[in-house]
Amino acid sequence: MGDIFRALADPTRRTILDELTERDGQTLFEICVRLTNRHQLNLTRQAVSQHLAVLEDAGLITTRKQGRYKFHHLDTTPLAAIYERWPATRKGQPT
């Protein structure tokens, strides 16, 4: 679970997750363009690729290869595990 928190601690990685929430299944190129155009984050493809690797290692994204392209997909399963870990914090439950 520490990998999840480490991955989420970085604002650039959270922005990448936001972009995948808005439009799932993007290539590295598409993510780079969206980060530059929408968020003024001028990162190299290598830097974005490293952020994606951290997110994938944490289980927050999955990838699918199709021909020459690699598509990145959001996976919220690890976030659900965090939510389930502390059930008393959910609305309507005693703390």
Produce a short descriptive summary.
The chain has 95 residues and is an alpha+beta fold. It has helices at 2-9, 11-22, 28-39, 45-57, 77-85, and strands at 61-66, 69-74.
Describe how the helices and strands are arranged.
Layout: H1 2-9, H2 11-22, H3 28-39, H4 45-57, E1 61-66, E2 69-74, H5 77-85
Antiparallel strand pairs: 1-2
Helix pairs in contact: 1-4, 2-3
Instruction: Please give the alpha-carbon distance between the first and last residues.
Output: 22 Å
Order of strands across the main sheet: 1-2
Instruction: Please bin the fraction of helical residues.
Output: 55-70%
Please count the helical segments.
5
* Rg (CA only): 15 Å
Total strands: the figure is 2
Written account of the structure:
The model has no long low-confidence stretch (mean pLDDT 91). Helix 1 packs antiparallel against helix 4 and helix 2 packs across helix 3. The relative contact order is 0.18. This protein is globular. With 95 residues, the chain is of the alpha+beta class. The chain has 5 helices and 2 strands. A hairpin with a 2-residue loop joins strand 1 and strand 2. The protein has a two-stranded antiparallel sheet with strand order 1-2.
